[in-house]
Amino acid sequence: MNGASDILFDPLLPWPAVWAACALSLAFLALGLWRGLRGWWLRALAAAALLVAIANPSFQVEDRAPLTDIVLLVVDRTASQQIADRAEQTDAAVERITAAVAALPDTELRTVTLRDGADNAGSLAMTALSELLAEEPRGRIAGAILVSDGQVHDVERAPDLPAPLHLLLTGHDTDWDRRLMVRNAPSFAIVGEQLTLTLRIEDSGAVPEEVAQSGLARIAIAIDGGEPMPFTVPVGQDLELPLTLPHGGMNVVQIEVAATEGELTERNNAAVVQINGVRDRLRVLLVSGEPHAGERTWRNLLKSDSSVDLVHFTILRPPEKQDGVPVTELSLIAFPTRELFLEKVDEFDLIIFDRYKRRGILPMLYLENVVSYVERGGAVLVAAGPDFAGAESIYRSPLSEILPGEPTARVLEQGYRPQITETGHKHPVTEGLEALAPPPEDGAEGPGWGRWFRLVDLLPESGQTVMSGPDDRPLLILDRVGEGRVALLASDHAWLWSRGFEGGGPQLELLRRLAHWMMKEPELEEEALTASAEGLDVTLTRRTLGEAPGPVEVTAPDGSSRLVELREASPGLFMGQFTGPETGLYRLAQDELSGVVALGPAAPREFEETIASGAPLAGAIDAHRGGTLRIEEGLPSIRQVREGRSAAGRGWIGITPREAYRTADVTVIPLVAPLLFLLMAIGLTLGAWLREGRR
């Protein structure tokens, strides 16, 4: 405890009245002197006594308890502070500051640890400092110290400190780094059309001379975890990367720069761009045999979708028909079969043969070209009618090389409800299709959709049978041929569903799924490994037609790996979950499948600028007379400096003692008794009157 004293005034009248009384007293005193009154000094004493009584002075004594000064310490433990030996530098700096502050008299340390900001906000050091400052009395703050790499992302929120601000900088002068930036990437693009990604590779820091002279970097680009495509590109220039999306739906483009020896970190060497592929138009060639009830249904279904370009080739007048009508009088236009089946067949996304049979119109060469079209990645759907079982069946042509089933020459004419096979319950084309059917009648088994009345008996040769008819005979077989896909529907009665017969059925959904599977849409792949993320929580989805798959190996951005077990969610669908420890790019691998998932950006904001620098905080530090010192040059000592002076120098930083205190007790002693001084003033005034009355 120590004391402090002061004289206080508590006037009996307002201060303006007191000052007016002083002025009036001086005026009367001056008048007495001018007139030569002998009692002028007694009048002066009387006026003084009266004024003192009105001012009512008192003597105040305070008992004060001194308070300690407070030094604020913000310790940056964000992701960029884990690079190289920065964590060890930070530990050493914190230990030194703690010991130095403890050695100062009447000084305390308040510490806050800074972590990565939410939603990829980066290092919010100034926010942390502001919050720490708000918790302490402003009058006790003697200084603030930040241990960081200087890459702070909220400099605009720097608080108005009443004391110096210092930065102890981690890292080294020799640090350098290379990073990949995606300047421009579309969210949507048309499948098959070229798009452009704008990339840039930049080197920063103390780049080695041999690296700078080379000016080149190696990058690898992969789509959906496929085989990377290597390129050598210049550094420090915007790169226009042409890219063509291979399929509709989400396309994950992974770009990675090869690591260079000596660079600070590889965390900013990769980027993931997710582009949603949309099809401009679905080009379909519908080849029909002679007209039948289902032909118009196929046509109406395809024409109802504005995104479908349909070319319909149908046989209205077969060559063997001899009705005597001259060819010159026919209103039909010759169909460009050569152009369609030889020159432009690759322009179609899907070819449908609807109850088509060999009539001599399409030469075998054309059908051989269709086989080649499938092997190159095309898609063929065959909707078989009775003709498929006869001698003129298109199976008796080169198409037999790609068709997954052989007709037995038997056609079943009986009512039956199509069934989903065990494999069909797993296959994405037919999985859950029964849920889209009308509810079954009371007591009925199986789906509630309507019956079909014809089935071409098949002997399956390859592929997967996903739908069956009576006695488990194959109804819908799906197969992969070369790079393409083939579907064989062993009935021409699917149109009954679209007509609503006995409640109808999901023909439109079945056709949509078939078309998308044949277009190789990722969400309809039979064997697929995908992942979806919400924050840092990841859900893995593994679809398969086989047995239960093993665990998925997940490789984190830092190179560590873990195994995630999968559980069966439904037939053919297995799921698992894990929580990523940090943002970045995670790689997935299971058997021969692979994939990637990005939690937040592939290179978080913490790794956009990795070279330690005091530049971002220079303005705030200069405004508070602080300093920036590199830890690699030696840990500084802490001195006490007076307010207003420079608070940093070579090897030292300063804090400003605040001399704050807490008042424990206050004693007030009146210095005058107003009544006594009033009587004194009256007495002195009478004395002056008596003295001046004597002549």
Automatic annotation (TrEMBL):
Query: What are the TM regions of this chain, as residue ranges?
Result: 12-33, 40-59, 668-690
Coiled coil: is it a keyword of this entry?
no
Q: Which UniProt keywords apply?
A: Membrane, Transmembrane, Transmembrane helix
Q: Which domain of life is it from?
A: Bacteria
Where along the sequence do coiled-coil regions lie? none
In the UniProt record, does the keyword Transmembrane occur?
yes
What is the protein name for this chain?
Glutamine amidotransferase domain-containing protein
